[in-house]
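hey all, quick one before standup. I had two proteins in the batch that finished overnight and I want to keep them in one place so we stop losing track of which output belongs to which input. First protein below, input sequence then structure tokens straight from the run.
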Amino acid sequence: MCHTAPPVTITNTNCSRDLISKITQVQDSAGKQETLVELGAGVYADAVVYDTSKITLDVGLGYHVDMTLEEALVCSEKRIGVLEQ
């Protein structure tokens, strides 16, 4: 079982919009979330995220930042703005 969410990478506006959609879904649901975690080489394992109040966001260049869901929404919206310029 996994207790934290896997990192999320934002590489284009579609990924950012998908992330915003998924964050909104997590905010609307209560309790734990079931997900798949990539172990490598296309192998995935079932996982349960018990604490959905934070997300680990891949901000690029190998850096990951823990953020609240609200902070991740703001970051994603800013990323969309930058990518659309």
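OK second protein, same deal, sequence then tokens:
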Amino acid sequence: MLGSCRSIRRGWNLEFQPSHHPRQTPSPERAPDRVEEIERSGLFSVAGIKRYVWAVDYAADFYIDVLNRYSGHIAWPQWKRDRLYAEVRELIGERAEKRIRKHYLSILHICRRIS
């Protein structure tokens, strides 16, 4: 079975962000939506919400490319990113599959325009 990002996230929460608590990912049903914001605009009413979960398997270098897109990592000094990415390569390299699975959630708000 492919490992998930949780083991890597657990490692970097301890090593690279010691002042933060390990991040708890909410279940898809509990993930925050934007209903209040949409309805507060006065332009739309929310008719429904659909939640879509999917997974992508990454080799180490492709997963590091994903991490390089997050502004939090971009803002880190180069030495810190290099150290994190070395850890990521090592952890993924230890897995039989040499890959990691990352889950994504998209929330679709189905709205009606208020006339």
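Flagging for whoever picks this up: Helices lie at 5-15, 35-40, 60-67, 71-74, 78-93. Residues 38 and 44 are 6 Å apart (CA to CA).
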